[in-house]
Write a structure and sequence with these properties.
Layout: H1 4-7, H2 13-21, H3 26-29, E1 33-38, H4 50-63, E2 67-72, H5 78-81, H6 90-107, E3 112-116, H7 122-133, E4 137-139, E5 148-150, E6 153-155, H8 157-168, H9 174-183, H10 196-207, H11 223-241, H12 246-249, H13 252-255, H14 279-282, H15 302-317, E7 329-331, E8 337-338, H16 342-346, E9 351-353
Length: about 375
């Protein structure tokens, strides 16, 4: 087991003494050590109940022959941070979550992990972290919120924004606005609607990283208890067998089969969501960060890099672009720039190719992911 690195041998006696300090017994140390990564938070409606899920998963892991250990993850509520400087922290939080999951799982030599997120940036952040570490892992989210009801019609957070517009247009009074805001989000859970949270929770099922029902059983539905028990049992089985691991399930070759873009505008020209277009075309795409396009996450394994290179090479061929035309790579949102070559830059997550200094605007490109 991976956890033997902190549990087995004379030289690990100090490590075991600290595990005893946690209250673990010798028998519990001999079992697979399973991280229960909980993003429980009292400020996110989709996360306020995750502590109860963590407890249910813990009980299931213990019953299945594993030793559960709860570890934390942060989260930002995209709905609450909208319209003020808090929104600048939303996307960045995804990277913090991925880094923290990677740190906790790797540093403590866990044999497996159950990831308990629910909302927009937390689900992909945990997923990214698990794929980096590549130990057996399952996503077990909190489930979607109930739909609201106002004047006999189903509502959600989306209708709340519409209500604000109606109020400003004089079509809704104070009482009507108050009724909407008190009735549109009636329970815990990820905001009702196919937004990032519910879409990602469903996608986790499609990728094999979550059990059926993860993205569709309502947060308040008792059936989710069965899901938690099954996930707990399954992760212990996976940990004992050593797999399957995230990279067995989520590969770039598999992702290349997904229809990332709608066949509209320029998107049908760029296969696999990897784009290489002249600056004059890329500028037609809007990004809320103020840049053109959005950075694409590129797996760092050698095999995945070869697939990535093959896919992008076909895109480059459309415009006669070669690796020699790409001389700068920026990371994230341009916090710093390095003079790395094409293949070096491609090995880093979030690599974005900047315009070159050749003076030929037809070859000024940026690699983007088209949502």
């Amino acid at each position: 087991m991976i956890s033997d690195q902190i549990k087995t041998g004379v030289d690990r006696a100090p490590h075991r003494s600290l595990l005893y300090a946690l209250g673990l017994t010798e028998e519990e140390m001999a079992r697979p050590l399973i991280a229960v990564v909980s993003a429980k938070s009292d400020i996110i409606p989709g996360h306020i109940h995750l502590d109860k899920i963590a407890e249910a998963v813990k009980a299931g892991i213990y019953a299945a022959g594993g030793t559960p250990v709860v570890v934390p993850a942060i989260g930002v509520c995209d709905g609450i941070v909208m319209g003020h400087k808090g929104m600048h922290y939303s996307l960045a939080s995804r990277e913090l979550i991925a880094d923290s999951v990677e740190t906790l799982l790797t540093a403590h030599c866990f044999d497996g992990a159950v990831l308990i997120p629910n909302c927009d940036k937390i689900v992909p952040g945990m997923l990214m972290g698990a794929i980096r570490v590549n130990i057996p892992a399952l996503v077990c989210s909190g489930g979607p919120m109930l739909a609201g009801h106002v004047n006999g019609k189903k509502t959600s957070l989306s209708q709340m924004f519409e209500a604000v517009g109606a109020y400003q247009a004089g079509k809704l009074d104070d009482a009507g606005l108050r009724k909407c805001e008190q009735s549109s989000c009636p329970s815990c859970g990820s905001c009702s609607g196919m937004f990032t949270a519910n879409s990602m929770n469903c996608l986790c099922e499609a990728l094999g990283m979550a059990l059926p029902g993860n993205g569709t059983i309502l947060a308040v539905d008792p059936k989710r208890q069965d899901l938690y028990r099954l996930a707990a049992k399954r992760i212990v089985q996976m940990a004992k067998k050593g797999g399957p691991k995230p990279r067995d399930l989520v590969t770039l070759r598999d992702l290349a089969k997904f229809p990332f873009m709608k066949k509209t505008d320029l998107r049908d020209e760029y296969p696999y969501g990897l784009t290489a277009a002249p600056l004059r075309d890329i500028n037609r795409f809007h990004c809320s960060s103020g840049t053109t396009g959005k950075p694409i996450c590129i797996p760092q394994t050698k095999g995945d890099l070869e697939v990535w290179t093959d896919a992008t090479a076909r895109c480059f061929a459309m415009y006669g672009i070669t690796a020699d035309d790409i001389v700068q790579v920026s990371y994230g949102y341009g916090l710093f720039t390095g003079g790395l070559g094409f293949h070096d830059g491609a090995q880093h997550l979030g690599a974005t190719v900047l315009p070159t200094s050749t003076g030929n605007t037809e070859k000024h490109i940026r690699l983007c992911y088209m949502p």
